[in-house]
Specification:
The protein has 15 helices and no strands. By secondary structure, it is mostly helical.
């Protein structure tokens, strides 16, 4: 597949629309419904959906080797992480209300969270962890395809099964780590993300969305209900960012069902220009709305005196 065909494939409207829906669910879960029963449900699938959709446009076969892969992914994932983080530091230093928490916690704390945990604190762009986790997930997936991609179907299944099991039990190694209270650079989150990324790749490879399209209106509400039932209804809060999971069958069941409902809904709404625009610019839009929220809070505080 040449580069022109890859670019054309990556700009499919249904994928952008699904990313738009995923971003709206992120905002809804983090801002409006945070720590509520519906928010717990959204957390079961909103980030898995992003990794799954990234897998649908993942093309490991187009790279000749590891070095070209690393160069491309570092340019698309790690450099934006560092650039947006630097911009966030600059903005926070301009506003007293933003600057105070940074200085109170100290620069050592900030640097630890920027370069070790890769989830900036007090800078209001903590969602950038997704870029670093995606980089590692794509690297893991690239290695998996090199080792198992052409092997027997059962070898593929068992290897992904073991990866999925390791991902939800990864926190058990934390007491044995020499530094920190979890693995650095969101590698632990990336283990779970890799499972969704590989699944998204094979879903696209097998044209799964196209095959389910005729019955999408039946499956969307069914998958939504089952995701809710096996998620917060039975087990409550999960979060791939913090590696908070329940039993593997229930976690992955709820996550994949919710992701499937969202992807099928994106396919159904693929002509929406608004959703496509949001999906194509999801990261800068999410970073922008984060700062916008704090500016609104500042405005309310000035008028009412209540923070």
């Amino acid at each position: 597949m040449d580069q022109k065909m890859v670019r054309k494939w990556e700009r499919k409207g249904e994928i952008d629309a699904a990313k738009g829906l995923a971003l709206l669910s992120v905002v809804l879960g983090h801002v409006i419904l945070l720590h509520t029963f519906p928010s717990n449900w959204i957390f079961t699938f909103h980030m898995p959906a992003f990794f799954f959709l990234s897998g649908m446009t993942f093309r490991p076969e187009k790279y000749d080797g590891l070095l070209p892969f690393l160069k491309d992914k570092a340019r698309k994932r790690l450099f934006p992480y560092l650039g947006i983080t630097a911009l966030a530091v600059f903005i926070c230093m301009l506003r007293p209300a933003y600057r105070a928490p940074v200085l109170n916690d100290g620069w050592r704390h900030q640097l630890l969270w920027i370069f070790y945990y890769t989830q900036p604190q007090n800078l209001y762009v903590g969602q950038l962890w997704f870029l670093v986790a995606l980089f590692w997930a794509e690297l893991m997936a690239w290695i998996w395809f090199r080792l198992a991609g052409k092997r027997h179907f059962l070898v593929k299944c068992y290897s992904v099964f073991l990866l999925a099991l390791l991902a939800v039990r990864i926190q058990e190694i934390n007491p044995y780590l020499p530094v920190g209270n979890r693995l650095p650079w969101k590698i632990d989150s990336a283990l779970c993300a890799c499972v969704f990324l590989i699944a998204g790749y094979w879903a696209a490879k097998g044209n799964l969305v196209e095959r389910m399209r005729p019955t999408a209106l039946v499956f969307i509400p069914l998958f939504t209900y089952l995701s809710f039932y096996f998620g917060p209804r039975l087990f409550g809060y999960v979060n791939i960012c913090d590696c908070v999971y329940v039993g593997a069958p229930y976690y992955y069941g709820a996550a994949f069902l919710g992701t499937a409902a969202l992807v099928l809904a994106g396919d159904f709404l693929k002509k929406s220009r608004l959703l496509q625009y949001i999906g194509r610019h999801s990261l800068p839009l999410f970073a922008a709305q984060t700062f916008a929220i704090y500016l609104v809070i500042e405005g309310i505080a000035r008028v009412t005196g209540i923070t």
